[in-house]
Amino acid sequence: MNTINLNEVTEFVKVKDIKYYFDNDKDILCEFLHNVVIVETFNGKGNMLSDFSDIYVLVSKNSFPFDKLSSNQIISISLSEEQQNFILGYIWMSSCTMKTRELSTPYHFMNFSDTRISGLNMTKYMINKYRYNEKCHLFPLYIMWTSAQYWKKYFMEEYKIHSKSDLFNMITNEHKLTNVNIEWKELFLAFD
Description:
Blueprint: H1 6-9, E1 10-14, H2 25-37, E2 56-60, E3 87-98, E4 107-115, H3 122-134, E5 137-140, H4 148-159, H5 164-174, H6 185-190
Parallel strand pairs: 4-5
Antiparallel strand pairs: 1-2, 2-3, 3-4
């Protein structure tokens, strides 16, 4: 598979701002709402809908090369010929933020993130876009066992974390996250 430059073939926006980028905003939103938001649950509760307008999404432009995707990639979108733009991934933001005197850059947290096509590093791309746009640190608020290996790899690559003690040092000393109610037990277990 050829490398896909997400910067050229996607837009990263809040759900409520899709209308400013795409003429078929209703089709994009209906597909996402019906196939992801309504069926998505978090900790057994379907409460993603209450924060719908503040979810950040990665939307494919008309030029997105769906035909270049390999058969090995997991695609959870029903690609239809009449619709060209799809929400490829999303970050469901938490209202929890933090700013300390010691660290001038604010901290934002996400409840959940997911992508609908595997193998394109979309989550990492969305995190980096958000961090750049908002001039903040962005961390998951919760790390579930189903995503612990992803976050382990992410923290190893982005923050050079290779052990529980590295992770503990990053949380408490580097980022002073002890005042925030992060739930990363599963990430700590992944470093066993």
